[in-house]
Amino acid sequence: MAKLLKLMQNEWMKLWNKKGTWVMIGIMLLLTGAMMGVMKFIDTQQSTFTEVENNPSAEVSNAPSWKGPMNDELAYLEMQLADDTLSKAERKELEADAKVLEYRLDNDIEPVDSFSKEGMLMDPSGIGGTVLLLTVIVAAGIVASEFSQGTIKMLLTRPVKRWKILTSKFLTVNLFGMFLMVIGYIFYILLAMILFKSGTGQELSWNGKEVVEVSVWAKSLYMLLLSFGSVFVIATFAFTIGSVFRSSSLAIGLSLFIYFSGAMVTALLARYEIAKYLLFTHMDLTQFETGVKLIEDVTMPFSLAVLAVYMIVFLVISYSTFVKRDVTA
């Protein structure tokens, strides 16, 4: 364990001594700021449109306009629940949504506005996309660069087992991804606090027995954790390709192709049973919170199980290749 920790420390120092690492952090902060700026612009335009659309009389502007869409949504859910072909998981999810809507309407509890401070805080998942792109670059090159720079022979001459060397690199990649997520999250929170106003709504959920209030910060951290899922999955894939084929460019290209085209591939194959077992279908775990699922009858436990199988396969390929590889050539 001591040797593994020492290797990780060395890998971490090598990573932070690179100028590109600091450039990545700057890019992440810049993109996060740009994303929040766009959200603020949309919020401003939406507010202006609402003010123009509504008559400036207090009676009209103070009306609970959210109840109309809530009633329509509840009616739609009830229509879906009348379908006898629903799976058990689908029915359970729809019933939970219906109970929350009924509770809101009965108790006059407004939902959280997406563009309020609370609404922005509860969904920091946009950070995951930026972190993923940057982490993939590190994951793809952390092993491949040792071969391209010719330092792999020197690395393997150390009295340390090869699997420990690879493990230290893999853990360093994921620690770097976590570090970027934390930095991006802190910056995101600061911008949300500065740019957006507090709302009056309350987040609610069904816990299986009753409707309960949801903490803004608990939901925020949960969404952040879910968004890191795609970072971990794609970074592991990039790490595998980079270590097996010794090419960081190939690893980056394939990883980004999977990330950006995954949803489209799943949509094309959605009517086939095989779609449930594709990596693309399960990469984005935030889909179970947003309600926009790629395959309707897929559940969170099932997605986690499928992802676990893929991760094991990726790591077995990485370790078996790295441990047995002849580097004398």
Q: Structural class of the helix and strand makeup?
A: mainly alpha
Order of helices and strands: HHHHHHHHHEEHHHHH
* β-strand number: 2
The number of distinct structural domains comes to: 1
Oligomeric description of these chains? single chain
**Main sheet record:** 2 strands, antiparallel
Q: Which stretches of 5+ consecutive residues score pLDDT under 50? A: 58-63
Please count the helical segments: 14
Q: What would the average pLDDT be, to the nearest integer? A: 88
Q: Taking Cα atoms only, what radius of gyration do you get, to the nearest Å?
A: 24 Å
Which range does the strand content fall in?
A: under 5%
Short description:
Keywords: Membrane, Transmembrane, Transmembrane helix. Pfam families: ABC2_membrane_2. The protein has 329 residues and is an all-alpha fold.
Describe the fold and architecture.
By secondary structure, this protein is mainly α. It has one domain. 73% of the residues lie in helices and 2% in strands. The protein has 14 helices and two strands; from the N terminus they run αααααααααββααααα. A two-stranded antiparallel sheet has the order 1-2. α2 packs antiparallel against α7 (126-148) and α7 packs antiparallel against α9 (162-195). It is globular and about 70 Å long.
